[in-house]
Amino acid sequence: MPDPASPRAAADSHGVTLADVAEAARVSLATASRVFSHPQLVRESTARRVHEAAERLSFRPNLLGAKLRAQQTRILGVMLPTLENAVFAECWRGIEQAAMAEGYSLMLVTSGYEAARERERVEYLLRHRVDGLVLTVADATRSAVLDQLDAEGVPYVLAYNQAAEHGSRHSVSVDNRTSACEGVQALIAAGHRRIAVVSGAFMASDRARQRYAGYEDAMRARGLQPAPPVNLPSHIASNAIHTGARIGELMGAPDAPTAFFCTNDLLAIGLISDLKRLGLRVPRDVSVLGYDGIALGTLVEPPLATVVQPNADIGTHAVRQLLTRLHAAGERAHATITLLPHALRVTGTVAPPPKTATPLL
Amino acid sequence: MPDPASPRAAADSHGVTLADVAEAARVSLATASRVFSHPQLVRESTARRVHEAAERLSFRPNLLGAKLRAQQTRILGVMLPTLENAVFAECWRGIEQAAMAEGYSLMLVTSGYEAARERERVEYLLRHRVDGLVLTVADATRSAVLDQLDAEGVPYVLAYNQAAEHGSRHSVSVDNRTSACEGVQALIAAGHRRIAVVSGAFMASDRARQRYAGYEDAMRARGLQPAPPVNLPSHIASNAIHTGARIGELMGAPDAPTAFFCTNDLLAIGLISDLKRLGLRVPRDVSVLGYDGIALGTLVEPPLATVVQPNADIGTHAVRQLLTRLHAAGERAHATITLLPHALRVTGTVAPPPKTATPLL
DNA sequence: GTGAAAGCGCTAACAT
DNA sequence: ATGTTAGCGCTTTCAC
């Protein structure tokens, strides 16, 4: 029996098109297509023939063609500040899982907290005709990117950024202010009165500001004087040199704080090292409370006390909410602000303040 | 003057095609296209008209059309085990930077070290017609995914996996065995003789095995007896409960190790916590050496001693090497195995062993 | 149940 | 320098 219908290279799957499969299966292109997209519309025996041919030729559908035709890509764009902060890496896990479960692909870009890069990267995603976006911007209250997205009517859901209550933006986050307030209340409950706040690039981060506001709430509620935030140049305290100096200064003062509230966990871990280098013991001499609840915090000893966000869940919910929006296209449902539950993990690096009133340094 | 050429909705950029721009600029579709792809082929005044029209209509090129036509997507697929290990998050930074610099986009998927997911995710990327892949597989010595990729002739470059010397695979990594050997030699030089190895999911990771081999090399070279590896269930030591028990057992023995070599930094950080919980001080009672050189290691106190890989560089080089391969299409250049320089950071958690010969626990 | 044909947005011959 | 046209791989009316 002579080789029937031998279309081009059989080994190289690249280049095998649905037309080739159709030809090999002796059906029309339309039928071959239906076998994959609407199997119920085609006779079972035909379908089998097509599948066999596809198998034999190692056919791999070219999604580009389908997407171009369909006018929707089933790709979601994701923009996160960085993956080097575990918060976002954990969130990515949730995003990926949710997207895959719904048959959506992802394009990821990182902005490095830079507004210019935010614009460029989003434009990039948009050119790829992503159906929608999940993103975390440095500051949602003044974001060129979000304004543009709004103007163009591109569907997006914010993750971590907590949308303004009466605005039109969708977001998934914890309640930054309330949760931070509760964290600081726990510090106060442990006996602390002089509590400092350490933050990274304060003015550039809406969350940092919201968490600071929570700190103020907690302090004021107890008649305590909030201290201005200690702003570190980086979000991830990589240059411990400068940080150490700032902290040393602070701890040398007569009214040195007995506890620190850091606006993220990485900052807290860096701070703890700085304190140790200064000869201070955590939590015996100074307490430290973080924010984020990254897994790493439970790996260090003592375990990092922190305000825990459900990071993977934030990703999962953001994707689900975006997909809901996409599928309910047209219906101008008003802004959905999802506040996921936070938790307090007050152990390890938080303890009552030392009895001595004298400065420790 | 009446509104000249008013094509569809002006505000919604979605749906504005190059044809609309061409019409508005009163040129042909081809010319409009050339303005963007080959500007030198078109008169400047014409180009300006087209740009103006594009601007006015907020035209955004649909990359899908271009890609379909071009038969290459300029998208690179990236598969990493997880982003929750900072090693890969740092690597991603290098990958993204290199890809963007060359005008390539990225699709990222994570495999969670699972072979089944590896296959599924790669298939996914292939359907998107990525031009090539940068990936880290759990075990390159027996990988269904790589076999498939080889069979289909899909261009890829391994990152972290160190390709077999006389094989046909391209890889970018450090020399795992040699670098691990040097790390352990440093431990020996510090005076340690009883050195244990802690590894995650040993048999599933080629790198863990190579690093263990390096440990054996170092031990044997000094006439010391290598101990079998302590295999932890996870790569990222999340369940400190079991780990702690194993370690306690080990440290209670009369010939307890005085130093540990961990096959990655996260494991090392978890181990240090376990040791502290056992009442042991690091490095005074026990020394710990990690492997990876993640930024986090420098944030803890004492700073983690470790074998440093240039993580971002690994990503950058992998991308560049892949692009070189893609551009040199056809020429069957033989396998390029890039070994990037590693470094030793032997401070902080490594010190000479304690003088006492009696068990510490 | 199946086939023929149009078209998604773009680029690149090929003409002029 | 610019226009005409074909076609990338796929899905989907619309006929039959």
Automatic annotation (TrEMBL), chains A, B:
InterPro entries annotated for this entry? HTH_LacI (IPR000843), LacI/GalR-like_sensor (IPR046335), Lambda_DNA-bd_dom_sf (IPR010982), Peripla_BP_I (IPR028082)
* Sorted UniProt keywords: DNA-binding, Transcription, Transcription regulation
* PROSITE patterns recorded: HTH_LACI_2
Annotated HTH lacI-type domain residues: 16-70
Example GO molecular function term?
Answer: DNA-binding transcription factor activity
Q: What is the lineage of its organism?
A: Bacteria, Pseudomonadati, Pseudomonadota, Betaproteobacteria, Burkholderiales
- Name of the protein this chain belongs to: LacI family transcriptional regulator
